[in-house]
Amino acid sequence: MFAVKFQLKVACAHLPVLNKPATGGAGISGYEIIVSYFSEVNPFMTALCSSGKKVLGGGCTGQAGITKNLPLLNGSGWQCDASNEIVDAYAICADVE
Questions:
Q1: Helices (H), the chain
Q2: Strand partners of residue 5
Q3: What is the mean pLDDT of residues 67-96?
Q4: Interval 66-78 mean pLDDT
């Protein structure tokens, strides 16, 4: 038996630029959702944003016992930890200026 970890990126190219500042900055663009799955019991999972993007939000799914559900300190993704079970991590990412 072997485990498989993979990360899925869903890019949303047709969304408008959100929250454009009155000063003329770019606001938020390049929105994507990153999903990290693992096929066996793995109590730690991280969904990482594409290079240069920042995490806007995220979350975890698991059966029970999720102990950490928070953004990485450097803003590059979302971290999930669980009590000895399969946990999946989700990160909502974008270019932020």
A1: none
A2: 38
A3: 90
A4: 93
Please choose, from the candidates 31, 28, 37, 35, the residue with its C-alpha nearest in 3D space to the C-alpha of residue 4.
37
What confidence score (pLDDT) does residue 18 get?
Answer: 47
Q: How far apart are CA 80 and CA 65, in angstroms?
A: 11
Confidence of residue 26 (pLDDT cuts 50, 70, 90): low
- How far apart, in whole angstroms, are the C-alpha atoms of residue 61 and residue 91? 12
Which residues 6+ apart lie within 8 Å of 53 measured at CB?
30, 32, 76, 93, 94, 95, 96
Distance CA 92, CA 4 (A): 22
Burial class (CB in 10 A: 0-12, 13-18, 19+), 84: exposed
Tokens of 3: 């485990």
pLDDT at 9: 52
Provide the whole-model pTM: 0.72
In the numeric block, which tokens belong to residue 26? 């770019």
